[in-house]
Structure formats: C-alpha cells, structure tokens
C-alpha cells in the first residue's frame, strides 16, 4: 500500500513557477509599455509652448501680449519695436526651435556637428560657398542700424527661451538626438543666424543654374540644335508676360510702364553670342521635342519635380464684388514638415514713428518681421522671378593657381574645419578665383560639367587645353553681401506704392516678383533684385573663366527694372512666367522662364469671371487657388484619343479621357491614366538618348 503524501508533486510546483514567471514577465512588459508611454507623452508635452498665463522675459521695457487663435497662430502686441521682435524670437523658439537649429547648422555648413559623418560632404559644399561668412559680412557692413537693433532684439528673445529650456524641454527631437549625439547642447542664437537663412532661400530660388548644368551635361551626347529643342523659347504671343508693355528710356535708363518700347538692342544685356539660343525651365519640361507626331504641342509647363512654382495675382476693385482690390498669393515651395512658412502677426499697441509695425502674414522661423502679408495700408505677395543671377565659370587650374587673361594667378584660399559628432574632424581647403569659389571640388556633377561643357561661341574664343577637365567656379549674387533684410522691415511699414517700391530696391536676393494692393484701391507690381549684366555671353552655358570679356559688367539699374501701377486691364498675374517681352526690353533677366501655363490659366479664369460686367468675390479667389486643371492634358488628350489601342483593358482606360474635364482630382481615374501615359511617353521618347545624369523621370 503506497505511503500518504502531503506536499505538491514536482510537476505541480514547476507549473506554478512557470505561471509566476509568465505573470511577472507580463507585468514587466505592461509596466515597461506604460512607462514608455508615460515617458513619450511627458517628453513630447515638455516641449509644448506655454500659451496661457504670464512669463517674465528679461529685457522687455513693458508688458507684451501674445494671443493665439484656435490654430495656435500667434498675434503679438507690444509697446516698442524692440519688445515686439524680442517677443517674436521667444515665441518662434517656443514653437519651432528644432527647425531653427537645424537650419542654422545647414546654412553654416555644420550639420555634421549634429548628425555625424553622413553630413560631411554637404557641409563641405556649403562651407565652400560660405553662406554664413557672407551673412556675417552683411551684418557687419550692409544692414541698417535699425535692422541690427531688431535682429539683436529677436536673438535676445530666442536666447531667453533657450536659457530656461534644454534637451527634451526645448523640443522632443533633442531627446531622439541624444541617442546619436549624447550631450549636444544648442548654442545661443545670433543675428547672423537669421541673415544666413536668406541665403538658403536664395539657393532654392536661384534661377537657371540647374538648367545651365543640364545643358552642359547634355552637350556630351547631343548637338546644339538638339539641346535647343529641349529648351524651346518662351511663347510670348500665347502666354502673356507679367508687364504687358512699357520700355526703358535710353537717356535716363528708367523703365516706364506706359512707354512705347523702342525694342531691345540685343535681348541679352550684353552681346548676342554665348551658346545655343532658346529658353525654358530645364530638361524636366521636355515638350516641344516629344516626337514629330506632336509638332503642334506647345511648351506649356514650368519646372516639374521640385515643387517650387508660386502663383500670385491681384484684381482691381472695379472687377470685385467689394469694390476693393483682392490679392491672392500661394508661394508653394517644396513640401516640408513643419512648413517652411510661419504665420503670425506683429502689432505695436500704438502705431507711431517710434513703433510703426502693425503687420500680419507669413515669415520664416528664425527671421524677424513678416515676409509676405499686409499691414493697415497695403498688402503684398511674392513669387519667384527666376532671374539668372548665377553663372558657372570653367577654370583652367594648376595646383597653385588658375589662368586669367593669359596670366597665372594664385588662388585665394581658406581652410575650413568640419567638426563631426562621434568622429574625427575634417579640414578642407576652399579655392577661390576672380569668379568665385571652385565648387567642382565638392560636387561630382559639376566635375562632369568641367569635362563636357562647350567653351564659348565667339569666333575669337580660344580655349586652353582641357586636359582631365576644367574646374568649375560659381559666381552668384547671393555670395555678395547685400541689405535684403532692410527690405523686409520696410515692406512691413510701407504706406503706399512709393514706399513699396523703395523697399523693393533693397530686396537684392532672392529676386522676387513683388505684387501689391492698397486700401485706396491701387494695384501694382515691381521686379526687384541684383541681376547681372554680362559683358559677353547669355548665361545659358558655363562661361570661360580665363577670359575677362565674360565677366559681369554691372547690375541692371534699379530704375530700369520692370514695374506697373493700375494697368488698364485691371489685374496683374505673376506665376513664374516671363516678366516682360524680350524684344521690348534691353536687359537680360533670364531665358529660362516657366512657360506660362499657370499664369495664362489664371488670366483666362479672371477674364471669364469679369466678362460682361461680372465681378470676382473672395470665394472666387479661393476657388481659383484650388484650380487643378492640367494644361498639358488639354493639348495631348486629342492625340491620345486618336491612337488605335488593341488591348481591351487599355482601351477602357483610354475611353476615360473622352469625358475627362482635365482636372487632377486625387480620385480621378482619367487623371491617373493620363499621367501614367505621359510619364512613359517621355521615357520611350528619350530613352537612353540623354546622358545618364539627365534621364527623364517623366514628371508631369
């Protein structure tokens, strides 16, 4: 008979232990997840801006109010200008300091200090151009005393916020950065950090430099005639320029919008030589040479793929339901998160000469003032003018110098040390010629330009032996110190068109189309900017840097830049199209305009709305902004419908085009089919005919 047992069996004990282990693991996991969620939420919330209550901000001369609407958009009210911009710096640091910090590291060529070795080459290229160095020169020598005062006040506000907020309390991204770059601490904000961001914007909006590169690369496989076909001339007769008429007085060198133009002497601002003729917006706009079958297809599109292409228009009160001008502006730069734009208002409690600001609109995080917006008297908008403000120069170099007018000159050199988070610092030598920094030292594509670009076209051009390839230098107006920041503050306080034009004179870089309306019923336009006049060549191909005949002789006089006030047609449209008819203007702005599809579409819609006494409302303006009709589809669809498609499935898709209204709604099957056909048509038409760097992606 077996003995009695009072204890549990070994099997039961093991099962109990397993249950306890499982329970413990589950509790640990739940606790870990709970703690992780708590840490994540608390870390995120720690960096949220304080939007209620009172804060003490050192340096203020009086109380400042910050009111935010339901979307968090701040309106700042202060008793003095300095208090206003000090508070603006504080508020923008609350909302966007991570963005500001990354931007200033980019413009200074110091991204590697934050993100490590993967950014070294980017930093080397940016250090070679020297944006931050130029911004410092602007602060030291160009901007007005008032602008310096406001920049310092803005910086004080940013730094007041930094003083009490570090790490994840400053922005949640710093908590993530700690995993890669433990111990990183942001430096104090400086006025130069603000000015340097204007260089980044100028780079994004610099005009035709990529087209210049593309032409040079294409010349390795295509003839000059073929390249011309890829860059068809602007269709002035079909898509109207911004300023429709006027001319430059030959005696005074002043533009008169009412004058009857005498005609351009050269159309280039210099001589008529310098490479193949024609204009356009790059190899991304290949329309005219699609195939012989589509000879009638006009060049309608501007640049594709970059996302940059702004629209603005203003309509006189005689054509609006309110009897007052209506101005619309959508500067759709390349998409970013957060947006490159920052909406806010800046208001002096009592507007006086000592505190003249009462403006609202959009600016950039890191920049004081309002860039696009309105005050109590005027409103203004901007689109990219696209002026040709940069040239690439081919340079015949040796180890120690470069050739210039038959003489060997020494480089101007400087050393730049790039600090690398988690790695060794790297030192580079920047070489500079009379024309600018040697950028091909930092960029493989530009090295290819030096190997392939044609050299001049004049009968007396003599090129030195290319050898393994020329070096490439960059001459660009943004690398010359200017006082563009003064223009921002002047626009904010302008009271009339005269003030507006005076502000525009300081808007050197980037060159923009400035559009205008005021409470007295006026509408207007001004083309500003430092735009070079070339002694020789037209800027469409790299120029021979060893020949001083190809240097810039001057800038187009401010008085000669196109403008107009209250045109008879009753509206002004700017959408990156040509500013003025080339045959009527003696200076070269650029030959690489957007082709005017957007501007003409806006013009057509305005004219259809105002036909037979019709009036335009604010709802109409908003509807116009949301218009998504495809102009290229209107041209190509009739050809696509003529194709005899054998495949039943594809034929069903083709039939979608029969009733299509050419709108590009996100759920439009016809739009999806058209864009797929367009993309593949481009690929089939060009295939391997272009150099590999320029293979068509097929954007539409």
From TrEMBL:
Membrane-spanning parts: 20-41
Amino-acid positions noted as binding Ca(2+) in the UniProt annotation, renumbered to this chain: 212, 388, 391
Gene3D superfamilies registered for this protein in UniProt: 2.30.120.10, Glutamine Phosphoribosylpyrophosphate, subunit 1, domain 1, Penicillin Amidohydrolase, domain 1
The UniProt record lists the keyword Ribosomal protein: no
GO BP terms, alphabetized: antibiotic biosynthetic process
Active site: 310 (nucleophile)
Annotated coiled-coil segments of the chain: none
Cofactor note: Binds 1 Ca(2+) ion per dimer.
Cofactor: Ca(2+)
UniProt-listed InterPro entries: Ntn_hydrolases_N, Pen/GL7ACA/AHL_acylase, Penicillin_amidase_dom1, Penicillin_amidase_N_B-knob, S45
Keywords: Calcium, Hydrolase, Membrane, Metal-binding, Transmembrane, Transmembrane helix, Zymogen
Organism domain of life: Bacteria
GO molecular function, one term: metal ion binding
Bias (Gly residues): 266-281
Disordered: annotated span: 245-287
Family matches, as PANTHER family: ACYL-HOMOSERINE LACTONE ACYLASE QUIP, PEPTIDASE S45 PENICILLIN AMIDASE
The family this protein is said to belong to: Belongs to the peptidase S45 family.
Protein name stated in the entry: Penicillin amidase
């Amino acid at each position: 008979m077996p003995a009695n047992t009072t204890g549990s069996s070994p099997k039961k004990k093991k099962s109990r232990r397993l249950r306890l282990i499982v329970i413990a693991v589950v509790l640990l996991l739940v606790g870990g997840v709970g703690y992780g969620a708590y840490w994540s939420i608390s870390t995120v919330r720690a960096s949220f801006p304080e939007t209620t209550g009172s804060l003490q901000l050192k340096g203020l001369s009086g109380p400042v109010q910050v009111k935010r609407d339901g979307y968090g958009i701040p309106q700042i009210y202060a008793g003095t200008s300095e208090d206003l911009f000090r508070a603006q710096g504080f508020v923008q640091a609350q909302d966007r300091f991570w963005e500001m910090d990354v931007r200033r590291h980019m413009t200074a060529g110091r991204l590697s200090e934050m993100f490590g070795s993967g950014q070294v080459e980017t930093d080397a290229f940016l250090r070679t151009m020297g944006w931050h160095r130029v911004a410092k020169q602007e602060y030291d020598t160009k901007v007005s005393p008032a602008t310096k005062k406001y920049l310092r006040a803005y910086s004080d506000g940013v730094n007041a916020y930094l003083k009490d907020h570090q790490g994840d309390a400053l922005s949640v991204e710093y908590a993530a950065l700690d995993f890669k770059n433990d111990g990183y601490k942001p430096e104090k904000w400086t006025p130069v950090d603000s000015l340097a961001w204007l260089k980044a914007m100028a780079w994004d909006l610099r005009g035709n430099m990529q087209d210049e590169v593309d032409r040079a690369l294409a010349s390795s496989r295509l003839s000059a005639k073929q390249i011309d076909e890829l860059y068809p001339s602007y269709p002035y007769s079909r898509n109207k320029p911004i300023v429709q008429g006027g001319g430059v007085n030959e005696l005074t060198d002043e533009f008169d919008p009412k004058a009857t133009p005498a005609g351009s002497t050269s159309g280039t601002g210099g001589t008529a030589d310098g490479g193949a003729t024609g204009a356009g917006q790059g190899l991304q706009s290949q329309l005219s040479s699609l195939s012989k079958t589509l000879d009638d297809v006009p060049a309608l599109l501007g640049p594709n793929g970059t996302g940059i292409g702004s629209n603005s228009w203003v309509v006189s009160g005689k054509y609006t339901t309110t009897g007052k001008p209506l101005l619309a502006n959508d500067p759709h730069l390349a998409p970013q998160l957060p947006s490159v734009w920052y909406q806010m208002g800046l208001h002096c409690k009592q507007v006086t000469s000592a505190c003249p600001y009462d403006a609202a609109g959009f600016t950039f995080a890191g920049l004081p003032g309002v860039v696009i917006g309105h005050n109590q008297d005027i409103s203004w908008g901007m689109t990219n003018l696209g002026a040709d403000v940069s040239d690439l120069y081919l340079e015949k170099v040796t180890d120690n110098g470069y050739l210039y007018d038959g003489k060997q000159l020494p480089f101007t050199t400087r050393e730049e040390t790039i600090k690398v988070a988690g790695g060794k610092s790297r030192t580079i030598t920047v070489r500079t010629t009379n024309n600018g920094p040697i950028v091909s030292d930092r960029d493989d594509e530009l090295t290819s330009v030096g190997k392939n670009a044609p050299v001049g076209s004049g009968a007396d051009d003599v090129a030195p032996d290319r050898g393994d390839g020329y070096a490439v230098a960059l001459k660009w107006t943004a690398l010359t110190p200017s006082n563009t920041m003064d223009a921002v503050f002047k626009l904010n306080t302008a009271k009339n068109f005269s003030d507006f034009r005076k502000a525009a004179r300081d808007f050197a870089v980037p060159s923009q189309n400035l559009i205008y309306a005021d409470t007295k019923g006026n509408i207007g336009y001004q083309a500003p900017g430092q735009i070079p006049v070339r002694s020789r060549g037209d800027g469409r191909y790299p120029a021979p840097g060893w020949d001083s005949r190809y240097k810039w002789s001057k800038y187009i006089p401010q008085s000669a830049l196109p403008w107009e006030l209250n045109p008879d047609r009753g509206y002004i449209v700017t959408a990156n199209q040509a500013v003025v008819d080339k045959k009527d203007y003696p200076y070269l702005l650029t030959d690489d305009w957007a082709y005017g599809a957007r501007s003409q579409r806006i013009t057509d819609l305005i004219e259809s709305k105002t036909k037979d006494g019709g009036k335009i409302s604010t709802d109409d303006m908003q509807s116009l902004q949301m218009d998504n009709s495809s102009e290229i589809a209107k041209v190509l669809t009739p050809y696509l419908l003529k194709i005899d498609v054998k495949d039943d499935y594809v034929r069903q898709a083709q039939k979608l085009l029969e009733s299509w209204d050419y709108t590009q709604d996100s759920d439009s099957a016809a739009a999806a089919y058209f864009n797929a056909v367009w993309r593949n048509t481009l690929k089939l038409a060009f295939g391997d005919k272009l150099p590999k760097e320029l293979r068509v992606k097929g954007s539409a």
